[in-house]
Protein backbone atom coordinates (compact mmCIF):
# COMPACT_ATOMS: atom_id res chain seq x y z
CA UNK A 1 0.00 0.00 0.00
CA UNK A 2 1.40 3.42 -0.93
CA UNK A 3 1.73 6.28 1.54
CA UNK A 4 -1.03 8.15 -0.29
CA UNK A 5 -3.50 5.38 0.56
CA UNK A 6 -2.42 5.09 4.19
CA UNK A 7 -4.88 6.70 6.59
CA UNK A 8 -3.88 6.91 10.25
CA UNK A 9 -5.92 8.03 13.26
CA UNK A 10 -5.06 11.48 14.62
CA UNK A 11 -2.50 10.79 17.35
CA UNK A 12 -4.07 10.92 20.80
CA UNK A 13 -2.68 12.82 23.75
CA UNK A 14 -1.43 10.60 26.55
CA UNK A 15 -3.86 10.57 29.52
CA UNK A 16 -2.92 13.04 32.21
CA UNK A 17 -1.06 15.39 29.88
CA UNK A 18 -1.84 18.37 27.66
CA UNK A 19 0.26 16.87 24.88
CA UNK A 20 1.61 17.01 22.32
CA UNK A 21 1.12 13.32 21.51
CA UNK A 22 4.44 11.42 21.50
CA UNK A 23 3.46 9.88 18.14
CA UNK A 24 4.30 13.14 16.39
CA UNK A 25 8.02 12.53 16.96
CA UNK A 26 7.81 9.48 14.68
CA UNK A 27 5.59 11.26 12.16
CA UNK A 28 8.04 14.17 11.88
CA UNK A 29 10.77 11.67 10.98
CA UNK A 30 8.89 9.11 8.89
CA UNK A 31 5.62 10.64 7.66
CA UNK A 32 5.80 14.44 7.84
CA UNK A 33 2.70 14.65 5.60
CA UNK A 34 0.21 11.86 6.22
CA UNK A 35 -3.51 11.41 5.69
CA UNK A 36 -5.42 11.04 8.95
CA UNK A 37 -8.97 10.32 10.03
CA UNK A 38 -10.25 13.43 11.80
CA UNK A 39 -12.63 13.26 14.79
CA UNK A 40 -15.63 14.23 12.62
CA UNK A 41 -15.03 11.32 10.23
CA UNK A 42 -13.43 13.39 7.47
CA UNK A 43 -9.82 12.92 6.38
CA UNK A 44 -7.08 15.53 6.30
CA UNK A 45 -3.33 15.77 5.72
CA UNK A 46 -1.48 16.11 9.03
CA UNK A 47 1.62 18.32 8.79
CA UNK A 48 3.96 17.86 11.74
CA UNK A 49 7.36 19.49 11.00
CA UNK A 50 8.06 23.05 12.12
CA UNK A 51 9.14 24.39 8.72
CA UNK A 52 6.12 22.87 6.98
CA UNK A 53 3.62 24.03 9.61
CA UNK A 54 4.95 27.58 9.50
CA UNK A 55 4.83 27.57 5.69
CA UNK A 56 1.31 26.10 5.59
CA UNK A 57 -0.18 28.88 7.71
CA UNK A 58 1.17 31.48 5.26
CA UNK A 59 0.55 29.49 2.04
CA UNK A 60 -1.92 31.29 -0.27
CA UNK A 61 -2.87 27.89 -1.75
CA UNK A 62 -4.44 27.00 1.61
CA UNK A 63 -7.44 28.80 3.10
CA UNK A 64 -9.50 28.41 6.23
CA UNK A 65 -13.00 27.10 5.53
CA UNK A 66 -16.08 28.41 7.27
CA UNK A 67 -16.74 26.29 10.35
CA UNK A 68 -20.41 26.35 9.36
CA UNK A 69 -19.69 25.16 5.81
CA UNK A 70 -17.02 22.46 6.29
CA UNK A 71 -17.17 19.68 5.47
CA UNK A 72 -19.19 20.85 2.45
CA UNK A 73 -22.66 19.41 1.96
CA UNK A 74 -24.46 19.00 -1.33
CA UNK A 75 -28.07 19.81 -2.06
CA UNK A 76 -30.69 22.40 -1.30
CA UNK A 77 -30.91 21.40 2.37
CA UNK A 78 -27.49 22.91 3.10
CA UNK A 79 -28.12 25.79 5.55
CA UNK A 80 -26.81 29.28 4.86
CA UNK A 81 -23.32 29.66 6.34
CA UNK A 82 -22.81 31.73 9.47
CA UNK A 83 -20.82 34.95 9.48
CA UNK A 84 -17.11 34.17 9.21
CA UNK A 85 -15.09 34.51 12.38
CA UNK A 86 -11.77 36.34 12.10
CA UNK A 87 -10.10 32.93 11.77
CA UNK A 88 -12.13 32.21 8.65
CA UNK A 89 -12.08 35.56 6.82
CA UNK A 90 -10.08 35.60 3.62
CA UNK A 91 -8.60 38.00 1.09
CA UNK A 92 -9.40 41.69 1.04
CA UNK A 93 -12.16 41.36 3.64
CA UNK A 94 -9.73 39.83 6.14
CA UNK A 95 -7.03 42.45 5.42
CA UNK A 96 -9.51 45.29 5.83
CA UNK A 97 -10.90 44.03 9.14
CA UNK A 98 -7.44 43.12 10.47
CA UNK A 99 -6.15 46.65 9.75
CA UNK A 100 -8.94 48.07 11.89
CA UNK A 101 -8.75 45.58 14.75
CA UNK A 102 -4.98 45.20 15.19
CA UNK A 103 -4.47 48.58 16.93
CA UNK A 104 -6.80 47.37 19.70
CA UNK A 105 -4.18 44.77 20.57
CA UNK A 106 -1.15 47.04 20.20
CA UNK A 107 1.24 48.25 22.87
CA UNK A 108 -0.68 51.40 23.78
CA UNK A 109 -3.92 49.52 24.42
CA UNK A 110 -2.18 46.76 26.39
CA UNK A 111 -0.48 49.35 28.61
CA UNK A 112 -3.99 50.64 29.31
CA UNK A 113 -5.21 47.10 30.15
CA UNK A 114 -2.25 45.88 32.23
CA UNK A 115 -3.23 47.52 35.55
CA UNK A 116 -6.82 46.33 35.11
CA UNK A 117 -5.72 42.72 34.52
CA UNK A 118 -3.33 42.97 37.48
CA UNK A 119 -6.14 44.20 39.75
CA UNK A 120 -8.35 41.25 38.70
CA UNK A 121 -5.53 38.78 39.35
CA UNK A 122 -4.74 40.29 42.77
CA UNK A 123 -8.41 40.19 43.75
CA UNK A 124 -8.67 36.51 42.80
CA UNK A 125 -5.50 35.55 44.71
CA UNK A 126 -6.69 37.44 47.79
CA UNK A 127 -10.09 35.71 47.64
CA UNK A 128 -8.43 32.33 47.17
CA UNK A 129 -6.19 32.86 50.19
CA UNK A 130 -9.09 34.12 52.31
CA UNK A 131 -11.14 31.03 51.46
CA UNK A 132 -8.31 28.53 51.85
CA UNK A 133 -8.83 25.59 54.19
CA UNK A 134 -5.83 24.05 55.97
CA UNK A 135 -3.53 26.34 53.99
CA UNK A 136 -4.45 24.79 50.62
CA UNK A 137 -6.55 25.95 47.68
CA UNK A 138 -7.45 24.90 44.14
CA UNK A 139 -5.52 27.07 41.70
CA UNK A 140 -7.83 26.11 38.82
CA UNK A 141 -11.17 26.98 40.44
CA UNK A 142 -9.78 30.00 42.28
CA UNK A 143 -7.51 31.52 39.65
CA UNK A 144 -6.86 29.88 36.28
CA UNK A 145 -10.55 29.47 35.46
CA UNK A 146 -12.11 32.79 36.51
CA UNK A 147 -9.31 35.10 35.33
CA UNK A 148 -9.63 34.62 31.53
CA UNK A 149 -13.39 35.24 31.62
CA UNK A 150 -12.93 38.42 33.66
CA UNK A 151 -10.25 39.64 31.26
CA UNK A 152 -12.50 38.84 28.30
CA UNK A 153 -15.42 40.70 29.84
CA UNK A 154 -13.27 43.72 30.74
CA UNK A 155 -11.58 44.00 27.33
CA UNK A 156 -14.37 43.02 24.92
CA UNK A 157 -17.27 44.44 26.91
CA UNK A 158 -19.10 41.17 27.56
CA UNK A 159 -21.42 41.38 30.56
CA UNK A 160 -20.17 38.91 33.16
CA UNK A 161 -23.77 38.41 34.29
CA UNK A 162 -24.67 37.03 30.81
CA UNK A 163 -22.13 34.18 31.09
CA UNK A 164 -24.84 31.53 31.45
CA UNK A 165 -26.13 32.64 28.04
CA UNK A 166 -22.95 32.73 25.94
CA UNK A 167 -20.61 30.23 27.63
CA UNK A 168 -22.63 27.03 26.94
CA UNK A 169 -22.62 27.80 23.19
CA UNK A 170 -18.92 28.68 23.28
CA UNK A 171 -18.00 25.47 25.10
CA UNK A 172 -20.13 23.42 22.70
CA UNK A 173 -18.19 24.80 19.71
CA UNK A 174 -14.82 24.18 21.35
CA UNK A 175 -15.78 20.53 21.80
CA UNK A 176 -17.27 20.44 18.30
CA UNK A 177 -15.59 17.18 17.26
CA UNK A 178 -18.37 15.32 19.09
CA UNK A 179 -21.21 17.40 17.62
CA UNK A 180 -23.31 16.98 14.50
CA UNK A 181 -23.16 19.77 11.95
CA UNK A 182 -26.68 20.78 13.03
CA UNK A 183 -25.49 21.18 16.62
CA UNK A 184 -22.45 23.20 15.51
CA UNK A 185 -24.67 25.48 13.45
CA UNK A 186 -27.18 25.89 16.28
CA UNK A 187 -24.39 27.00 18.64
CA UNK A 188 -22.90 29.37 16.05
CA UNK A 189 -26.28 30.93 15.24
CA UNK A 190 -27.00 31.34 18.97
CA UNK A 191 -23.65 33.08 19.57
CA UNK A 192 -24.22 35.36 16.57
CA UNK A 193 -27.69 36.25 17.81
CA UNK A 194 -26.36 36.99 21.30
CA UNK A 195 -23.51 39.13 19.91
CA UNK A 196 -25.90 41.08 17.69
CA UNK A 197 -28.28 41.74 20.57
CA UNK A 198 -25.39 42.81 22.83
CA UNK A 199 -24.13 45.19 20.16
CA UNK A 200 -27.61 46.73 19.93
CA UNK A 201 -27.43 47.34 23.69
CA UNK A 202 -23.99 48.95 23.30
CA UNK A 203 -25.29 51.17 20.51
CA UNK A 204 -28.00 52.48 22.83
CA UNK A 205 -25.44 53.10 25.61
CA UNK A 206 -23.29 55.37 23.47
CA UNK A 207 -19.61 55.89 24.35
CA UNK A 208 -17.52 53.27 26.16
CA UNK A 209 -13.91 52.06 26.48
CA UNK A 210 -14.38 48.37 25.72
CA UNK A 211 -13.54 46.80 22.34
CA UNK A 212 -17.17 46.61 21.19
CA UNK A 213 -17.74 50.32 21.79
CA UNK A 214 -14.42 51.22 20.13
CA UNK A 215 -15.18 49.10 17.06
CA UNK A 216 -18.71 50.47 16.77
CA UNK A 217 -17.31 53.99 16.85
CA UNK A 218 -14.85 53.01 14.13
CA UNK A 219 -17.62 51.48 12.00
CA UNK A 220 -19.54 54.76 12.05
CA UNK A 221 -16.67 56.86 10.71
CA UNK A 222 -16.95 58.11 7.10
CA UNK A 223 -15.23 55.62 4.80
CA UNK A 224 -15.03 53.03 7.59
CA UNK A 225 -13.51 49.66 6.68
CA UNK A 226 -15.57 47.87 9.32
CA UNK A 227 -19.24 46.88 9.05
CA UNK A 228 -21.60 46.05 11.92
CA UNK A 229 -21.46 42.36 10.94
CA UNK A 230 -17.69 42.50 11.41
CA UNK A 231 -18.21 43.64 15.01
CA UNK A 232 -20.57 40.68 15.52
CA UNK A 233 -17.88 38.39 14.11
CA UNK A 234 -15.32 39.96 16.44
CA UNK A 235 -17.40 39.12 19.54
CA UNK A 236 -17.90 35.51 18.39
CA UNK A 237 -14.19 35.18 17.57
CA UNK A 238 -13.08 36.48 20.97
CA UNK A 239 -15.38 34.04 22.75
CA UNK A 240 -14.12 31.09 20.72
CA UNK A 241 -10.43 32.02 20.82
CA UNK A 242 -10.08 33.91 24.08
CA UNK A 243 -11.95 31.93 26.70
CA UNK A 244 -11.44 28.17 27.08
CA UNK A 245 -8.06 28.19 25.33
CA UNK A 246 -6.75 30.68 27.89
CA UNK A 247 -8.17 28.69 30.82
CA UNK A 248 -6.56 25.54 29.45
CA UNK A 249 -3.22 27.15 28.75
CA UNK A 250 -3.06 29.03 32.06
CA UNK A 251 -3.77 25.86 34.04
CA UNK A 252 -1.21 23.87 32.09
CA UNK A 253 1.40 26.63 32.30
CA UNK A 254 0.98 26.87 36.07
CA UNK A 255 1.30 23.08 36.35
CA UNK A 256 4.48 23.17 34.24
CA UNK A 257 5.95 25.79 36.56
CA UNK A 258 4.91 23.94 39.72
CA UNK A 259 6.50 20.71 38.46
CA UNK A 260 9.76 22.53 37.66
CA UNK A 261 10.35 24.16 41.08
CA UNK A 262 13.95 25.21 40.37
CA UNK A 263 12.87 27.19 37.30
CA UNK A 264 9.90 28.57 39.21
CA UNK A 265 12.21 29.83 41.98
CA UNK A 266 14.54 31.42 39.44
CA UNK A 267 11.59 33.21 37.84
CA UNK A 268 10.39 34.36 41.28
CA UNK A 269 13.86 35.74 42.09
CA UNK A 270 14.38 37.28 38.63
CA UNK A 271 10.92 38.57 37.59
CA UNK A 272 12.39 40.56 34.70
CA UNK A 273 12.61 37.23 32.86
CA UNK A 274 8.82 36.84 32.69
CA UNK A 275 8.57 37.78 28.99
CA UNK A 276 11.04 35.10 27.91
CA UNK A 277 9.39 32.60 30.26
CA UNK A 278 5.95 33.24 28.75
CA UNK A 279 7.26 32.59 25.23
CA UNK A 280 8.69 29.26 26.41
CA UNK A 281 5.43 28.29 28.12
CA UNK A 282 3.58 29.09 24.87
CA UNK A 283 5.98 26.80 23.00
CA UNK A 284 6.10 24.02 25.59
CA UNK A 285 2.40 23.84 26.53
CA UNK A 286 0.19 23.29 23.47
CA UNK A 287 -2.60 25.78 22.95
CA UNK A 288 -4.14 23.13 20.69
CA UNK A 289 -3.09 19.84 19.16
CA UNK A 290 -4.71 19.17 15.78
CA UNK A 291 -7.72 21.41 15.21
CA UNK A 292 -6.43 23.86 12.57
CA UNK A 293 -8.29 23.00 9.37
CA UNK A 294 -7.09 24.51 6.09
CA UNK A 295 -8.41 23.57 2.65
CA UNK A 296 -6.30 23.33 -0.51
CA UNK A 297 -7.44 25.65 -3.32
CA UNK A 298 -5.33 23.83 -5.91
CA UNK A 299 -3.32 20.63 -6.35
CA UNK A 300 0.27 20.57 -5.08
CA UNK A 301 2.84 18.09 -3.80
CA UNK A 302 4.52 18.17 -0.37
CA UNK A 303 7.14 15.61 0.67
CA UNK A 304 6.00 13.33 -2.13
CA UNK A 305 2.32 13.43 -1.17
CA UNK A 306 -0.16 14.69 -3.74
CA UNK A 307 -2.54 17.12 -2.04
CA UNK A 308 -5.57 17.84 -4.21
CA UNK A 309 -7.86 20.86 -4.39
CA UNK A 310 -10.54 20.47 -1.72
CA UNK A 311 -8.39 18.32 0.57
CA UNK A 312 -8.18 19.32 4.23
CA UNK A 313 -4.69 20.15 5.48
CA UNK A 314 -4.05 20.14 9.24
CA UNK A 315 -0.85 21.87 10.43
CA UNK A 316 -0.14 20.89 14.05
CA UNK A 317 1.57 23.69 16.05
CA UNK A 318 1.97 21.44 19.10
CA UNK A 319 4.15 19.11 17.03
CA UNK A 320 6.02 21.92 15.27
CA UNK A 321 6.91 23.48 18.61
CA UNK A 322 8.66 20.24 19.65
CA UNK A 323 10.60 19.79 16.39
CA UNK A 324 14.33 19.27 17.16
CA UNK A 325 15.16 20.80 13.77
CA UNK A 326 13.82 24.11 15.10
CA UNK A 327 14.44 23.93 18.87
CA UNK A 328 17.40 22.53 20.82
CA UNK A 329 16.31 19.86 23.30
CA UNK A 330 12.66 20.65 22.48
CA UNK A 331 11.06 18.43 25.14
CA UNK A 332 12.80 20.34 27.94
CA UNK A 333 11.16 23.36 29.56
CA UNK A 334 13.73 26.17 29.52
CA UNK A 335 12.33 29.49 30.76
CA UNK A 336 15.44 31.28 29.46
CA UNK A 337 15.15 29.92 25.89
CA UNK A 338 15.91 32.66 23.35
CA UNK A 339 15.28 33.11 20.50
CA UNK A 340 11.97 31.25 20.54
CA UNK A 341 10.10 31.49 17.23
CA UNK A 342 7.25 29.17 18.22
CA UNK A 343 4.05 28.92 16.19
CA UNK A 344 1.60 28.73 19.10
CA UNK A 345 -0.33 31.63 17.55
CA UNK A 346 0.05 30.43 13.96
CA UNK A 347 1.97 32.37 11.33
CA UNK A 348 1.32 34.68 8.41
CA UNK A 349 -1.93 36.57 7.74
CA UNK A 350 -3.88 34.58 10.32
CA UNK A 351 -1.43 34.98 13.20
CA UNK A 352 -3.68 35.22 16.26
CA UNK A 353 -4.81 38.84 16.60
CA UNK A 354 -5.16 38.49 20.37
CA UNK A 355 -1.75 36.90 20.90
CA UNK A 356 -0.30 39.89 22.73
CA UNK A 357 -3.32 40.06 25.05
CA UNK A 358 -2.84 36.36 25.84
CA UNK A 359 0.84 37.00 26.58
CA UNK A 360 -0.04 39.90 28.89
CA UNK A 361 -2.69 37.88 30.69
CA UNK A 362 -0.36 34.90 31.29
CA UNK A 363 2.56 37.09 32.35
CA UNK A 364 0.38 39.02 34.79
CA UNK A 365 -1.17 35.84 36.21
CA UNK A 366 2.27 34.35 36.92
CA UNK A 367 3.79 37.59 38.22
CA UNK A 368 0.93 38.30 40.66
CA UNK A 369 0.87 34.70 41.89
CA UNK A 370 4.60 34.73 42.66
CA UNK A 371 4.41 38.18 44.29
CA UNK A 372 1.50 37.28 46.55
CA UNK A 373 2.45 33.61 47.20
CA UNK A 374 6.23 33.35 46.72
CA UNK A 375 6.36 29.85 48.23
CA UNK A 376 3.44 28.42 46.23
CA UNK A 377 3.84 24.69 45.54
CA UNK A 378 1.75 21.63 44.74
CA UNK A 379 -0.10 20.20 47.74
CA UNK A 380 -0.40 16.73 46.17
CA UNK A 381 1.87 14.58 43.96
CA UNK A 382 1.65 15.72 40.34
CA UNK A 383 0.68 12.23 39.16
CA UNK A 384 -2.45 12.28 41.37
CA UNK A 385 -3.91 15.44 39.80
CA UNK A 386 -7.20 14.74 37.95
CA UNK A 387 -7.53 15.95 34.35
CA UNK A 388 -10.33 17.43 32.30
CA UNK A 389 -10.06 15.52 29.03
CA UNK A 390 -13.56 16.26 27.72
CA UNK A 391 -12.30 18.41 24.83
CA UNK A 392 -9.07 18.69 22.79
CA UNK A 393 -8.15 21.52 25.17
CA UNK A 394 -6.93 19.18 27.92
CA UNK A 395 -5.97 20.64 31.27
CA UNK A 396 -5.75 19.75 34.95
CA UNK A 397 -9.24 19.72 36.48
CA UNK A 398 -7.82 20.86 39.82
CA UNK A 399 -4.45 22.17 41.02
CA UNK A 400 -4.26 21.84 44.80
CA UNK A 401 -1.53 24.16 46.11
CA UNK A 402 -0.18 25.34 49.43
CA UNK A 403 2.07 28.29 50.32
What this model shows, in words?
This protein is globular. Helix 1 links the parallel strand 1 (7-9) and strand 2 (33-37). The protein has 403 residues and is α+β, with helices and mostly antiparallel strands. 40% of the residues are buried. 46% of the residues lie in helices and 10% in strands. Helix 6 (146-156) runs antiparallel to helix 10. It has 15 helices and 13 strands. A six-stranded mixed β-sheet has the order 1-2-3-9-6-4.
Distance from N terminus to C terminus (CA atoms, Å) equals 58 Å
Strand order of the largest sheet: 1-2-3-9-6-4
Q: What's the total number of strands?
A: 13
The geometry reads as globular
DSSP summary: helix tally: 15
User: Mind summarizing the main beta sheet?
Assistant: 6 strands, mixed
Order of helices and strands: EHEEHEHHEHHHHHHHHHEEEEHHEEEE
In percent terms, what proportion of residues is strand? 5-15%
User: Runs with pLDDT <50, length 5+?
Assistant: none
Instruction: Give the averaged pLDDT, no decimals.
Output: 91
Radius of gyration: 21 Å
Class by alpha and beta content: alpha+beta
Amino acid sequence: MSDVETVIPVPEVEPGTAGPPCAYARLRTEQPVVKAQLPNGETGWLISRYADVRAAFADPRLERPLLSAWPPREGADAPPPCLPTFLEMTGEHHERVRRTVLPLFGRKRLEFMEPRIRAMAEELVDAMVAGAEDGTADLVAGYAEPLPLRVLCETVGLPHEDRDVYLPHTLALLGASGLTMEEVLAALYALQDYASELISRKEREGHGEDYIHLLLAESRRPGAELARDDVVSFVVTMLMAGYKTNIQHTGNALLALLTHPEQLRRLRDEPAGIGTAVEELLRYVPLMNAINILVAKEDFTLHGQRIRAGDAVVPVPASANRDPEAFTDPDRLDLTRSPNAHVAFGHGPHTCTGGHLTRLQLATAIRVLLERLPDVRLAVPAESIPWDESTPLRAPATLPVRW
